[in-house]
Design a protein that fits this description.
disordered C terminus, binds fe (ii) ion, mainly alpha
Length: about 240
């Protein structure tokens, strides 16, 4: 038999598998001990419910963030409904449905954040005065359809940045809360995109904004005597 087909053992070389087998047993022992500790810890502090010893985040910090986020969701829910009721010009018909759809999404976010607050031992933010005080996004009812959509776009963008921060804070220390915010963030990004595509024109071949059309829109808003936030930001 050629040397090529001989095993390491036949060639008389050193045999590493003994070391990895030893490591394997060691790993198994470590996990056996860890699992045993986890099982024992889970039997203690039963009133804590879903908040177990393995939870690595600071529950008070996470509850405080959830409460603020929930306040923002309720405020956003009310803003969308207000825009739905008040959108009245000839272009409003299609946009009204979008206001309603978004309001329903924000309601769902507020509900899931409220449930998570309760799971972590906190109190959900449901009192009107607390919502007004704690919402990170100011309520903007505005006037005509365009300024309503602008206010909604800005609110969504502020919420996206806030939720990105919360996700980074949760990391892998609070996986449940992180996943709730990841889900909400995905929907807020969709909301922001819905408004941006209504307000601005994008080149079909590059995906970039067509600046000339944006300038026209901004000067149109300014001519009506309502300097928008976007016009201010663009200047
Ligand atoms: Fe939301
Ligand atoms: Fe949203």
């Amino acid at each position: 038999m050629s040397d090529q087909w001989q095993s390491d053992e036949q060639r008389g070389r050193a045999q590493p598998p003994a070391i990895s087998r030893a490591r394997g047993n060691q790993g198994e022992m470590i996990w056996q001990n860890r699992l045993q500790t986890m099982m024992q810890q889970a039997e203690q502090n039963l009133p804590d419910g879903a908040l177990t010893a393995g939870y690595k985040a600071d529950p008070q910090e996470i509850v405080a963030l959830l409460v603020r986020a929930q306040a923002g969701e309720w405020a956003s829910f009310l803003q969308y409904w207000h825009h739905y009721f008040m959108a009245s010009d000839i272009h409003s018909a299609e946009v009204k449905d979008l206001f309603k759809e978004h309001a329903e999404d924000e309601y769902e976010h507020a509900r899931m954040f409220g449930e998570r607050i309760q799971e972590l031992g906190g109190v959900p933010c449901d009192k009107p005065e607390d919502i007004a005080r704690l919402s990170p996004v100011p309520t903007e009812y505005n006037h005509d359809l365009r300024s309503m959509i602008e206010a909604d776009l800005i609110g969504e963008r502020q919420t996206i940045d806030f939720y990105d921060e919360i996700i980074r804070t949760c990391g892998f220390d609070d996986n449940v809360t992180r996943r709730l915010f990841e889900h909400a963030l995905e929907e807020e990004a969709k909301h922001a995109d819905d408004w941006a595509t209504l307000l601005f024109a994008y080149d079909a071949s590059t995906g970039k904004q067509i600046e000339s059309m944006h300038d026209e829109l901004v000067s149109m808003i300014q001519a009506r005597g309502q300097p928008s936030k976007m016009a201010r930001r663009a200047s």
